[in-house]
Each structure stands twice: as C-alpha cells, then as structure tokens.
Amino acid sequence: MDGWAHYLTPTAAQRRLGMVCLGAGHKREDDPCPPRVLTSYAAVFVVEGRGWLEWGHGPRRAELSASSLFWLFPGVPHTYGPHGAGWQEIWLLFEGPAAAAYEELGYLSRSEPVVRLADPFPARAALDRLLDRCRQERPGTEVEAAHAVHSLILGVRNSRSSQDSDGDTAVLAALREGACRPLSVHEHAHRLGLSLASLRRAVRRGGGCSPKEYVLRIRLNRAKELLAESDLTIAEIARRVGHDDAAYFTRMFSRRAGMPPGAFRRQQRRPRQPSAR
Known about the structure:
Elements: E1 2-7, H1 12-15, E2 20-29, E3 33-36, E4 41-48, E5 51-55, E6 60-64, E7 68-72, E8 78-82, E9 87-95, H2 97-104, E10 114-116, H3 121-136, H4 141-159, H5 165-177, H6 185-191, H7 196-207, H8 211-229, H9 234-240, H10 246-257, H11 261-268
Antiparallel strand pairs: 1-2, 2-9, 3-8, 4-7, 4-9, 5-6, 5-8, 7-10
InterPro entries: AraC-bd (IPR003313), Homeodomain-like_sf (IPR009057), HTH-like (IPR037923), HTH_AraC (IPR018060), Tscrpt_reg_AraC-type_HTH (IPR020449)
Pfam families: AraC_binding, HTH_18
Domain HTH araC/xylS-type: 169-267
C-alpha cells in the first residue's frame, strides 16, 4: 500500500454546523480491507481498477469498477478490496446530523450503497477539492472540508447512473403540476397511470419523501407565494392550493410554517407604491 492520508478533529462549534469530515486520503491498495464496523459514515471512490464490496449481516456483495463510489454506514459490517493487480481509491470519513438527514432523504442508501456514476466529474472534483483542503491545513480547513462533503453527496446524487432517474423526474413534474388539485394520493396515482406503490417509490427516489409530503410541500410553497404577492383572502388561497376547509388550512400552515398565514403575510408583504396618475 502507498498513498496519503490526513485526519481531522473538529471543534464543538464546527460540529454544530451539522456535518464534519473526520479524514480523507488517496492510496493504491493491493489487499482487502479486513471485516470491520465503523462508527461514522464513509465513502470510497474507485479511481482505477476493479474489486468488490460485501456489507450487512447477509452479507450482500457487489462488484466494483473504476468510477464506482460506495457509501459505508455506521454500525454496518463490511469488507471490500481489489481484484487482481490492485486499485487506486480515494476515501473519506464523515458524520453529523446532516449526514443522517441525507440518509433519511434517500441520498445515501444502506440497501444500495454502490453508485455507478454516469458522469464521475462532479464527484471527483469534490473529492479533489477535499484532499486539497486537507493537505493545506490552513485556518478553516475543517469547515471547507465539510462543505466538500456536501458537494460530494450532491454531485453523486445528480450524476448517478439510474434507469429510473428520467422516469422519476417526469413523475415529480406531473405531481407538481397537479399538486394543488383537491385529490388524494390514490387519485394522483390513478391520474398518472401508476400503482400507489410505484408512485411512492418514484417520489421517494426523486424527492426523498412520501407523495403526501411532496404534495403538501408544493401546496405550502404556492400558498406562501400567494400570501406574499396577492390580495386574496386566506380562504381563497386555501381553495387555490387544494383545501376547501380554511380552518384546516390555517392549522396545517401554522404547524408547518411556524406561524399563522396572516402573520406570514404581514412579515413578507412589502408596502405597495401608489400608482402614478
């Protein structure tokens, strides 16, 4: 084995940002990683070569090739390594509430940890930036390294190769288009020609939440726009976003936005200039 590694010990204030990088490195490896369990998250990017990953209590196994990236999760047993003549890898360790939130949103998947990138450039650029920040060890390195981890997760999400990605995008667009119609999730699925299970899978993959939550967020966003920009009454706005019961809309809005619709309008409305005569 030959390569380079650097470890970081973030401060309490840096941890309050929600994401911290604990270490990163770039190495050539000829031997497998022995079976282990991490207490943090990790990512490994295969720069060149081929290999394998085993994870879980099964365990499950996946084959790896150049430009593959795989996530490792706290508490999940795993081992991995190269075939034949070895490989080159870039690795990093990270943790924090933001990492757990990315997992909850579906950006990191314990059941499908291997990502075969259609376009590896965004992920590789984020990793190179992370390694560069760690090498420099200048003030702010820990914050910049955490930012690079965010960029990596988003880059992988946006460039992963998935036969479902185009279909998911189309489903989300169609759901957004009809979100303010007074329809149930079952009725939305029927409108889109999907089973309820297929709709749920597509929205979970593409939006990181359930269809009900996705529709609710679209309705709330539209309601906020109307409160800030129009003179419609709250009852009229409720109907515009799919709620016939204005009282229910007010309770739901207050719970999700942290204030009643009227208070949101007062905060966000700008005084209108009198029209010139």
